[in-house]
Amino acid sequence: MITGWVILDDTRTLVTFVYAKCNHVDRKSLWESLVACRQSNNRLILGDFNIIRTDREEVGGRPHLAKVIDDFNEWIDTCGLMEVKYHGNHLSWCNGQEGNARKWARLDQALMNMVLSLFVPIQKKCGARRNPFIVWYKQFGIRLRGVRGLIKLAAKLKRVKMELRSWNRNVFGRVKKHIQGLEEKLTALEFQLQADYSDETDAEFKATKMELDVWEKKEETRLAQAAKKKWLKEGDQNSRFFHVVVSQRRHGVVISRMQLEDGTVLESPK
Questions:
Q1: Cβ-contact 11, 42 below 8 angstroms
Q2: Number of domains in the chain
Q3: What is the DSSP letter of 63?
Q4: Which has the higher per-residue pLDDT, 11 or 270?
Q5: Of 33 and 126, the one with more pLDDT
Q6: Do residues 100 and 212 share a domain?
Q7: Are residues 113 and 227 in the same domain?
Q8: DSSP 130-184
Q9: Domain of life here (predicted)?
Q10: Of 79, 152, 214, 256, which residue has the fewest beta carbons closer than 10 angstroms?
């Protein structure tokens, strides 16, 4: 991590270049050290963060854990940062692997605070409805004592609104559909392995199983929230129903018996 002041047209901006490590624990330590970015100065943080913000920022390979992504987004929200718009292909990184192991992702980010966003020219291109708001604060509001805090709050609330909409639509809104599709794919791959085993099919089977586990955890979270919401009305019976549903789902993705091409039957111990 390298941090320094950049002065342009009498405007001082504190710029930090980061290259985050692959290890989640080390990255989290970096986030904690950068929490100090919550300040009234112009702030820009950019570089390779080695993590994505949403599932849409990666294709192929092993998916990132939801907890790791949540930690990154939580740090961004805590610091009151916002993304700088980019041009071109957003999947700027590839692991160079072949077949199903190949993965594309957006690991590089440029983040700025609300104070800096009032001065960068890119904000003037955001659309007619937003321009008067920014110009008004730049000319008048920024002179008022304490208005910067209100600007940061408004930006954070707007980001929360957008993220909640996207989260509800793209995560919990499609969980059952994703689980059903992955279960069907897993069944097809299992039959394919039994009929004609290959390393490529086995690798795809493992990747699909891991992806299914991720979506199963999301469904468990949704069911837990629904059970908690209904518990006040239905009591403990609703909690027992939740655990029964989760147990049945876990049982459905377990391979307990497999028959090889030569007729040998492999069974997992009970």
A1: yes
A2: 2
A3: P
A4: 11
A5: 33
A6: no
A7: no
A8: THHHHHHHHHTGGGSTTHHHHHHHHHHHHHHHHHHHHHHHHTGGGHHHHHHHHHH
A9: Eukaryota
A10: 256
